[in-house]
Amino acid sequence: MDAVVIIPARLESQRFPQKVLADATGQTLIQHVYDGAARSGASRVVVATDAPEIIAVVEGFGGEAVLTGRAHENGTSRLAEAVRLLELADDQVVVNVQGDEPEIESDIVRAAFEALGPDADIAIGTVVSPIENQSEFESPNVVKAVVSEADEHGDRRALYFSRAAIPFDRDGSGDVRAFKHIGIYAYRAGFLQRYAALPPTALEKAEKLEQLRALERGFAIGVAVREVRSVGIDTPEDYERFVQRWERRS
């Protein structure tokens, strides 16, 4: 897979400071993420971080890392700086894997890459997963995705993303499927630079969803549908549950 996976990783996070360095499993959280990304078959995996401490940890387990500035409002901005520092060619595919996804499945990384595909009309590739219960559907913390029907090649595109419970099945027909968005993105490096430099749009600011910046400006987002079981780590409690799952698997 000719893609560079870049993992943005901040040292401080509001709900769980220094979570990427948590190491109750005997490995840091960032190493779990790095190893999962590497299993995808990507040609290169790089951690982009604002902290020398994280650089030291990544290089300590044999990984590659790049030091970015601290003044980034989001992971995409940090990703764009990393692309510049790494001097990647404009046509190089970059996959953004979140730094708090220690159980990231290699298939999901490949799916984002494949959703971007060779078609220059597709600006971003991403992944959605079927919603399995009503509480997920109703939660504003779960981002819902409405996607097109598959075309003759089986490809789909994003129509909209929202924290609201969409699509609304007014008559209860059951004919529409609800999907949650998985926060993984594939871009070409040149587009990423352009995208990160664009100012936020009204919908993006209202929903607090960065991908709406692309849709609102008319850029196409390719979508892969996969069953995704990995769980991101937002709080110490999330991390404890991950450690328990890891111990059971081990």
Main-sheet strand order equals 5-8-6-7-9
Give the N-terminus to C-terminus distance in angstroms.
Answer: 28 Å
Q: Low-confidence parts, pLDDT < 50 over ≥5 residues?
A: none
The best one-word shape is globular
What proportion of the residues is helical, as a percent range?
A: 25-40%
Oligomer: single chain
CATH-defined superfamily: Spore Coat Polysaccharide Biosynthesis Protein SpsA, Chain A
Mean pLDDT across all residues, rounded?
94
Task: Give me the secondary-structure category.
Answer: alpha/beta
What is the overall number of helices? 9
Output the radius of gyration. Answer: 18 Å
Summarize the structure.
By secondary structure, the chain is an alpha/beta fold.
Detail the topology: elements first, then pairings.
Elements: E1 3-9, H1 29-38, E2 44-49, H2 52-60, E3 64-67, H3 75-86, E4 93-96, H4 106-116, E5 122-130, H5 134-138, E6 144-147, E7 156-162, E8 179-188, H6 189-197, H7 202-207, H8 212-216, E9 220-225, H9 236-249
Parallel strand pairs: 1-2, 1-4, 2-3, 5-9
Antiparallel strand pairs: 4-8, 5-8, 6-7, 6-8, 7-9
Helix pairs in contact: 3-6
Question: How would you sum up this structure, described in words?
Answer:
This protein has 250 residues and is an alpha/beta fold. It has a single domain, classed as Spore Coat Polysaccharide Biosynthesis Protein SpsA, Chain A (Alpha-Beta Complex). It contains 9 helices and 9 strands. It has a 5-stranded mixed β-barrel. Helix 3 (75-86) packs across helix 6. It is globular. The two termini are 28 Å apart. The mean pLDDT is 94.
